[in-house]
Amino acid sequence: MNDFLIKISLSLQTFKTHRLRSFLTALGIIIGVSTVIAILSLIDGLNRSVAEQIQSIGSDLVFLTKYPMVMAGPQNVEEIAARPDLTPQDAEAISELPSVDIAIPEISQQLTKLKYKDKEVATVRLIGSNEKFSSVNNRFVESGRDFNRDDITHRRNLTIIGSYIAKNLFPDESPVGKELNVRGHRLKIIGVFREKGAFLGQSMDNMLVMPYTYYEKIYPRRGESIFERAFFGYSVDIRPKQGQVEKTIDEVRELIRRRHGLSFDKKDDFEIGTQQMLMEIYQNITRVGFIAIVAIAAISLVVGGIGIMNIMLVSVAERTREIGIRKAVGASNGNILAQFLVESVFLALIGGIIGILLGLILAWLISAVSPLKASVSFWMIVLGFGFSAAVGIFFGIYPARRAAGLNPIEALRYE
Q: Which of 137, 272, 329, 391 has the lowest tally of Cβ within 10 angstroms?
């Protein structure tokens, strides 16, 4: 232990003697580690935020759709358009399955503008569903009331609006009881949903929900284009009973295949997704960016490592006589190798510590001035130290072995 402390003390003396040179040598390590820590912190924070937002949509939801939830590569739009449409009756049949708690039909599209008197909001999501929409989607009607079964059955021209619409169209008054004009139809506001915030940068509160039966009156299915037939139709949101997600998926698949008259050799003409699938897709996207950033940071670490090897070779040349003296008084090759290897690792770790601190500061600054939120985990700090130590060892071995291999007599003669 004392021998190790002596080596650390000698390393510090060497660095103090050549402070600027040591700092410039460690700069590559500093840049590489700070980049990795900052990016990891932001990606981890973003992953946690997205996980919370996906969870806020509802608990362990299963989604039945006509088209893939996420388009992975080119899609045959004609094949999707030719699939049978999902219907509210499908949702009713699914709700009767043993593993299903609730299943609701949902149909939606985007409205370019929505006006009330002299105020206006853009890109509003119009949704048609039933009285269980709030329960399935983890929504809470903050003021007014929710839909009931009669509202759906009698196709009433009612709507519940998101808090974004309430704040922007009715900043100084309660929206409950007011009427909105949607495509020439008057919709009476009966409630306002509690604010849910944004999901992937998009507001989840710029929306209005109406009975799906009234939605069909305002937006009858025209089917004029392949795109409309493929992507403008019903989906079914399903809340499984506790711990029965996989069973629900199997039961829903079997039921819809039966309702669509598919034989065992035919592939599904519908898609089933889950919240976990959404999270995995998102993580795969961020993983590509992470790998690219780490690759760039690795280049910086290699450059820093080459700098360390170079400066350690210079140090060996400068201290050749010192090495000869130490060998003459009994220092073994192992002692000399260990000394220079400790100096190399110590220099890399100093760069790593500075890089970790700068990375955390950088992540905090980005969080302060942008919607991105950083999240720091202990494993990131360990990773930063691990990278630094690995670089110090790898690029320090050759100079250390060269120092240990010097002939003591020739080293003593060195001027």
A: 329
